Amino acid sequence: MIVIAVLFVALVLVAHSYLWYRLVRRTTGPGRVRKTLTWVLAALFVVLVTTFVGTRMGLESWVAWPGFIWLALMFYLVVFLAVLEVPRAVAGVLLRRAERRQEPVAAPEPVAVPAGAPAPVEEAPATPAPVAVAPMSRRLFLERTTAAVAGVSALGTVGYGMTSALGDPVIEPVKVALPKLDPRLNGLRFAVVSDIHLGPLTGVGHAERIVRMINGLEADVVAIVGDLVDGSVAELGALARPLKSLESRYGAYFVTGNHEYFAPEGPGEWIEELGELGVRSLRNERVEIRHQGAVLDLAGVNDLGGAASGDGPDFEKALGGRDTSRSTVLLAHQPVQVDQAARHGVDLQLSGHTHGGQITPFNLVVGLQQRVVAGLAEVDGVQVYVTRGAGFWGPPVRVGAPPEITMLELRT
């Protein structure tokens, strides 16, 4: 955590330095305005670092809101300014060429007139040429225009992203064909949700909305695939109580995500709390889902984040010794866990963790670390469905990856 904190502060400092150069240094002259904007940017840096540290200490939401919103704005300001660097540089080159072509015209030398000669007829003065804009003003106009375009674009993107993140998740209908599926299990439906991230910015309404939408699907099984909370039971227990109202034919099941291991006490308290709310945790274990006289194995493994504390995934414990002629659905928070799932003959893995990238273009970065970013794919013979998650982490912003609850139907 110390390494992550130092890296985060260093990146934020670099980003703020770049923003100061582009938005303050290049758009203002020495004086009061530049000093004021410099202090504003410095204050925003302090707010952001305070938010990052404060959320780890359980500070209230009024601390988190301004910091996380500025984090999103800062990110998109950097992105848009970086994208505009090339057209700005091209415009600067064209501007310098235009300035070189505007060379000053020399004044005509006086003509000597001999004594007694008639005075030369003065011609009517020519219409004065328009006064050219000073070269420095043109450059300043270019810099301010670039800053304005980046600012408007960032504000619009973050505003749209907040509307998406704080609104209702979309319902994603997905049908998955399993070769070994007993025909009597045809049509068995899973409501899959992940990365709810109950925390200081969500409030109890976030869980209430998700529960209402899941219940409206009338699913046979509810699968909560990790990262339910961002805090302790003492801090966030009240926000999770709506989960007691979850409805399904064969129950609701949960596996840990990496965020459940961030708390010093680990996931133990939340496992007990969820049990009291009627949600069963699959801790490297499996259960049998009996439907219309047929059986499906539903297994769950702990997240990789628990390995450091001896509470990591144990695929042999969860999947060993089962009847391999039956189809098996595995709940595993991170898509990368499919590598081990394939070795144990799993038919379908349900995962989350990626948020679908949450904020474009992070989806490109996530793809470097996880086998699947979002949606249905096949990896090493195992079908993997990765939900984008119903919540958000950090900034209450989703761009290009709207929150989702999946209605997944098994087919023969």
TrEMBL record:
Domain Calcineurin-like phosphoesterase: 188-356
PANTHER family (alphabetical): PHOSPHODIESTERASE YAEI (PTHR31302:SF31), TRANSMEMBRANE PROTEIN WITH METALLOPHOSPHOESTERASE DOMAIN-RELATED (PTHR31302)
Short name of any one Pfam family annotated for the protein: Metallophos
InterPro entries: Calcineurin-like_PHP, Metallo-depent_PP-like, Metallophosphoesterase_sf
Protein name as catalogued: Metallophosphoesterase
TM annotation in the entry: 6-24, 36-55, 67-91
Alphabetical UniProt keywords: Hydrolase, Membrane, Metal-binding, Transmembrane, Transmembrane helix
